[in-house]
Design goal:
This protein is mainly α. The protein has 19 helices and six strands. The radius of gyration is 22 Å and the shape is globular.
Amino acid sequence: MKSLNKIIIGIMLLTLSSSCKDFLTVNPKTDVARDELFATEEGFKDALIGIYIQIGEDSSYGKELTMTSIEHLVSSWSVTVNSAAAHLNRFNYTDAGAENSLQNIFNKQYKTIAGINTILDQVENKRHVFSPGMYELIKGECLALRGLLHFDMLRLFGPVPTLAASANRLPPYVSTFSKKQTAAPSFIEFKTSLFKDLEEAQQLLGKSDPFLNNSITDFKNGTYRANDQFVNHRYLRMNYYANTALKARAHLWFNEPQKAYEQAILVINAKNPDASAKFKLGTSADFAANNFVLTSEQIFGLYDHNINTKFSSPMLYKGTDATVVKSQLYGNTGTDIRENNLWVVDIQSSVSRYIFKKYDFTKSAADLLQDTKQIPMLRLAEMYLIAIETGPDTDAQNLWTAYQTARNLVQTNLPTDATQKRDLVIKEYRKEFFGEGQAFYAYKRVNASPAQVTFLSGGIDVNYTPPLPKSETTIN
């Protein structure tokens, strides 16, 4: 990618409403020279908020890497014949539309990584502009975000982990802001670069993140620095616990179960100063309150005030009635809170569709007060599933019981066979993270067979390795 002389950034401004929760809106600042931008602490804050805005755009986690293209790779939605989505359903990566979708994702991620590297390129030489703790917070957050974006490019375009030795070419790990071409790494080199970023981020955020000593409620009710817009939404940012959760996810990918368990359990057991749980598994009460994204579970989420306009029905639907989803996805339990609350039959112009409503928010004052217009990025449920798969038998069973209780499932014992337990967990990933972009990665991690991929049409062979885009000019 050509060296950026200027960076396009945005600022989130907090506006108050007498009838609803604080909103985050975008007021862009453009064409600000780097030297001017990074002359003050506020400039660094603005630049980092600009990164979050980019991450939340449709071509990134606002749609493509959570709800649309990445979900089409596991046939989550009903699609139009011969559309790009239909070709992604069939792993037809040579189709022009499918190829373009993946190219756009690749381009967007590396452009955002370039923006992160721009901040990191400046932060060391400008330490004198920061107030106490802010250098550590901003640098740590940038390193964690850089790890997150790179890791998802590996998960999408890289090899199946168990077949990494035969991988041809991996996406680059770009750690510097430079015009020079970044060499394609080996699987081990990529892993080393990733954990270098995440470990340094953990150390920096461990010294500076106010989320460590404050609860989500403290931030929401204004107990903690309500007037400081940069730090009073730590529960939605790539915070200390989000970095820990990402480490758990990454260790699992690289087949390091003990390390994955250790990081996951740190998040599960995280406490507030009053000894209450930092994060809580959602229950039927959350769904009854129209909190379909389970904000009590979110370790990192993207706030999207305009999500209503982005995901109006009938965009996200599967089939014409409840039969397919209830039977194939949930197994007709009759009790599973996801089965009973996240879908609804919608009839428009005499056409019936079974609509997914995780991102369907009403505009009532009650819903807005709950601050539910979020796109989940890392959730407590994933930490439970990681710990259930990798933890000691007794601990795993206790966590499985707690998880089943929260989802209102009949209590069962975990299989004693490791492969059977893992397969059970993969089925839960499919149910739990529907519409969040995690199922494809779960199937890919274990190299699941076509028979294991829920909703995959018969006669289709899975291909978990999309080719790297033909044009990589956006990297350098």
